[in-house]
Amino acid sequence: MHGQLSQDTVVAAAASAVWDVYRGLELGRLVNQLLPDVLGKVEVIEGDGSVGTPGTGYMKEIFTKIDEEKRVKEAETIEGGFKALGFNVYRARFEIIEKDSATSVIRSTIEYEVDDELANLASHVTTKQVEILAEAIGKHLCEKKATG
């Protein structure tokens, strides 16, 4: 069984500023600063935030795609989390879309694959955490711009 969920979050920040956060390791640092009780602690175990950089927490993931031109980043869970539940693939994709010079959309997409006999597990997949993350990053960037 294959599935996909997507959530668009509009933020009052330029797409370039949002991408600067999402493209590398800054996102993990901000999760630790802004949302440690909600999303857990992010720890980079090796790498510089480019493709192939693994991260860990309640799960391990690896960045599988970073497209600077399209502002797209993908991370796939390789251990723990939904993989531990029996999912074959669990991938998060973040796309930063420019609306205008001061507004952008963070499109967060979760893609997954699970064997048909475990299809009931698909009901556990949600975009709530990536939505909370996008909202927190948007708020952080607005506050940073205001105090700028």
From TrEMBL:
Source organism, top-level taxon: Eukaryota
Protein name (record): Uncharacterized protein
Organism: Pistacia integerrima
